[in-house]
Amino acid sequence: MSVMKIGFLDIEWVDLLDVLLLAFLLYQIYFLVKGTIASRIFLGYLLIYLLYLVAKAVGLELLTTLLGYFISVGALALIIIFQQEIRRFLLIIGKSTNLANSRFFMRWFRPPTVSEPATPLKPIVDACKSMSSEFTGGLMVVSKNDDLDKFVQTGDSLDALVSKRLLLSIAGQYSPLRDGAVIITDDRIRAARCILPISENDEILTSTGFRHRAAIGITEVTDAAAIAISEETGRISLAIDGEFYANISSAELEEKLQDYLMDASKPRRRDNGKSNNHA
């Protein structure tokens, strides 16, 4: 294998490949934590590690020893600090390598795509339209492929057919189930008053309420879609793949849900041009 000599360094092509792969991995990690508090911790830890490498190369033994102890302990601390980001990273890998969602599997082993999604959208959209006109707040999660049992267990189990009347009753002013989220799977309302993870993305406007942050949060860790209706403005918002579409009409809501729930083989997209973080 050919060797490049730069000064006192002997660099082989495999070394260049190693550096490029490491740079790519670091970029992907930074992209994953970008916009969160964890990104600042990641950059700080990276700077300390670079200082450790410089001190080791120069021969500063005392500083190298102290930084070495810090880095060895810091590796465990990073696992604790970045547990949510690590979980997101593993979820992304799992979704991208999921056999059931691969194009080959969809083409040869899945039945032909039907013209309507498994979840009936009309009663959901009609309920959202009524809640919007009456300034009734609400939060609904419509599942796609991922299992939402973990979040269903945080609420009150219903297991009832999806209907406009039932959704409006749950969201009613005097309903004991109005707080929290309603989780819908296929044609069933599985549970109400469910607790969802709150998004910690720093790029979300500070004026965004907890209901809308919860809608974004559940779509960051699962492939479900979340609908939030503002109690103050009556605006309908939709969260998909961590992207937030604010102040959309009922027709737009139905269209986006239809497209997203029907296209099971389509990879998760980040359409920044269409997203809007205003609640």
Automatic annotation (TrEMBL):
Gene3D superfamilies: DNA integrity scanning protein, DisA, N-terminal domain. The keyword Cell membrane applies. InterPro entries: C-di-AMP_synthase, CdaA, CdaA_N, DisA, DNA_integrity_DisA_N_sf, DNA_integrity_scan_DisA_N. HAMAP family: DacA. Residues 83-250 form the DAC domain. Keywords: ATP-binding, Cell membrane, Membrane, Nucleotide-binding, Nucleotidyltransferase, Transferase, Transmembrane, Transmembrane helix. This is Diadenylate cyclase. It is an enzyme of class 2 (transferase). Probably a homodimer. Signal peptide: none annotated. Its EC number is 2.7.7.85. It comes from Larkinella insperata. The chain crosses the membrane at residues 12-31, 37-55, 62-82. The keyword Nucleotidyltransferase applies. Catalyzes the condensation of 2 ATP molecules into cyclic di-AMP (c-di-AMP), a second messenger used to regulate differing processes in different bacteria.
